[in-house]
Each structure stands twice: as structure tokens, then as C-alpha cells.
Design a protein that fits this description.
Blueprint lengths: L3 E6 L3 E5 L5 H8 L17 E3 L2 H4 L7 H7 L7 E3 L9 E4 L4 H19 L1
Parallel strand pairs: 1-5
Antiparallel strand pairs: 1-2, 3-4
The structure holds FE2/S2 (inorganic) cluster.
FE2/S2 (inorganic) cluster (FES) binds next to loops.
């Protein structure tokens, strides 16, 4: 039986999984880090990932709990990796860790200031 391709960005890692696998489990299998604190119970919202319109067809529709947790972000292409189940090929973007993004932005500002002097 052939699997379904799940492609993770920005790591550019691809894995083949069985239909019904969650993106969180696919990420673990691909050795892609998806943050989680609740262990996949749709409670922490740390596992948010983004899929584009064409890729969203590769995931089963959101359950009520996922839709409620995501709110308006559901319309922006976000999914909870622990709830979204693979049913077809899908491209998944893992957002940058907010702390890392803040540190990177601060370092960029410092570099600009250093260039001024
Ligand atoms: S792992 Fe906590 S909400 Fe998905």
C-alpha cells in the first residue's frame, strides 16, 4: 500500500504516511519539530501550522473543537497539527517560534544600529 506525501516547510522534509495520520504524528515521523504542550489534545494551540488553499484539500475537514480553538485563524489557512488528519498530499508550513522571531528581530535592529555608528 502506498502512502500519502506530506511535505513540511521551511525544513523541506517529506514523509509518506497512511491516510488518517495527524500532521503532528507525520511531523514526528519526519523528524520535524512541531511545538506541543498538551500532547495533542487541542488544548495548548502551540501546534498551529499553515496550509495553503490547494493543500487544504489534503486534510480532512476541521472538527468542531479545532474550528472553535482556531477562531478566525481557521479562515487564514491555519490548522492544529494534532487535529488535522491527512487524506491526500499536503504542503505544510510550520510558523517560526514566536520567541525565536522576537530574538531575530531584535538582533536585526541591533545590527542596523551598529551600522549607523
Ligand atoms: S498539541 Fe496542543 S493544541 Fe495541538
Amino acid at each position: 500500500m502506498s502512502g500519502i506525501d506530506v511535505h513540511f516547510w521551511p525544513d523541506d522534509k517529506k514523509i509518506s504516511v497512511r491516510s488518517g495520520t495527524t500532521l503532528l504524528d507525520a511531523g514526528r515521523k519526519a523528524k520535524v519539530h512541531i511545538r506541543t504542550r498538551c500532547g495533542g489534545k487541542a488544548a495548548c494551540l502551540m501546534c498551529k501550522v499553515k496550509v495553503n488553499d490547494s493543500s487544504s484539500k489534503g486534510l480532512a475537514p476541521m472538527n468542531v473543537n479545532e474550528r472553535l480553538k482556531l477562531g478566525s485563524q481557521a479562515e487564514e489557512g491555519y490548522r492544529l497539527a494534532c487535529q488535522a488528519r491527512v487524506i491526500g498530499p499536503v504542503q505544510v508550513t510550520i510558523p517560526e517560534d514566536p520567541l525565536k522571531a522576537a530574538i531575530r528581530a531584535q538582533l536585526a535592529r541591533q545590527a542596523e544600529e551598529d551600522d549607523l555608528f
